[in-house]
Design a protein that fits this description.
By secondary structure, this protein is mainly α. It folds into two domains: about 5-60, Arc Repressor Mutant, subunit A (Orthogonal Bundle), CATH 1.10.10; about 65-190, Orthogonal Bundle (Tetracycline Repressor, domain 2), CATH 1.10.357. About 70% of the residues lie in helices and about 0% in strands. The chain is built from nine helices and no strands. Helix 8 (about 150-170) runs antiparallel to helix 9. About 35% of the residues are buried.
C-alpha cells in the first residue's frame, strides 16, 4: 500500500471501520462498495484511491482490522496476565466478547469469503495468532514459571477457538465458558497434560 499522509490514513481508517460495521451486521457477501460508500459518505474515486482493487482490497483491510480487534478487545488484561485475578478478568472479557457476537464472527466470515489460500489473508491470521500466543505465554510464565508456556498458550487458544466454533454451530456459549475456565483452572492447579503441561 502506498504511504499515506496522516489525514489520508485517518480517512482510510474511517472507511475501514464503517465497512467493518456493515460487514458485522450483514455479512461480507451482502455488502457491496455502494453500501460502503453510502455508509461512510465516500465518493467512488476516493474509495478506489484507498482501495485500488475494489472490494477485494476492502475486505482484506477489514480482515486486518478485525484481527486487531480480536486482541484489542481482550486488553488491558491480555497484556497483563500477572496474577490469577488478571487471568480471571481476561477469561470474563473473552467470554463476554463472544457472548455479545454470538454466531456473528466477522473474522471467520471474512476468511471464509477471502479464502485462507490467499497469502495476504494467511499472513493476517497467522500474525494475529502468533501475537496472541506470545501474550498468553508471557502470562503463563508470570504465574507458572515451571510450565511449558508456549504449549499452554496453544492449548488456551485452542479452548477459545474451539468454543467459538461450537458457539457458531450451536449458539451455546457453554462450550467456550467451560473449555476456557477448565484450561485456566488446570494451569492454576499445575495439572500436567491438558493444563500447564509441566516440564
Amino acid at each position: 500500500m502506498r504511504a499515506l499522509t496522516p489525514k489520508g490514513a485517518a480517512t482510510r481508517q474511517r472507511i475501514v471501520e464503517g465497512a467493518a460495521k456493515l460487514i458485522r451486521d450483514h455479512g461480507p457477501a451482502n455488502v457491496g462498495l455502494d453500501d460502503i460508500r453510502a455508509a461512510t459518505a465516500t465518493s467512488k474515486s476516493q474509495l478506489f484511491h484507498y482501495f485500488p482493487d475494489g472490494k477485494a482490497d476492502m475486505l482484506l483491510a477489514v480482515a486486518a482490522h478485525e484481527a486487531e480487534l480480536v486482541l484489542d478487545e481482550q486488553q488491558p488484561y491480555l497484556g497483563d496476565l500477572t496474577s490469577w485475578a488478571q487471568w480471571e478478568a481476561w477469561r470474563d472479557r473473552v467470554i463476554a466478547r463472544y457472548a455479545a457476537q454470538r454466531r456473528r464472527c466477522p473474522l471467520s466470515a471474512l476468511t471464509a469469503q477471502l479464502g485462507l489460500a490467499d497469502p495476504a489473508v494467511e499472513g493476517i491470521i497467522t500474525g494475529m495468532y502468533s501475537r496472541w500466543q506470545a501474550q498468553i505465554a508471557a502470562g503463563v510464565r508470570a504465574v507458572r514459571p515451571d510450565a511449558d508456556a508456549e504449549r499452554v498458550a496453544t492449548q488456551l487458544i485452542g479452548a477459545i477457538t474451539g468454543g467459538a466454533t461450537m458457539l457458531v454451530a450451536t449458539d451455546d456459549i457453554r462450550y467456550l465458558e467451560i473449555g476456557l475456565t477448565e484450561a485456566i483452572e488446570n494451569l492454576r492447579r499445575g495439572a500436567p497434560g491438558a493444563g500447564s503441561s509441566l516440564r
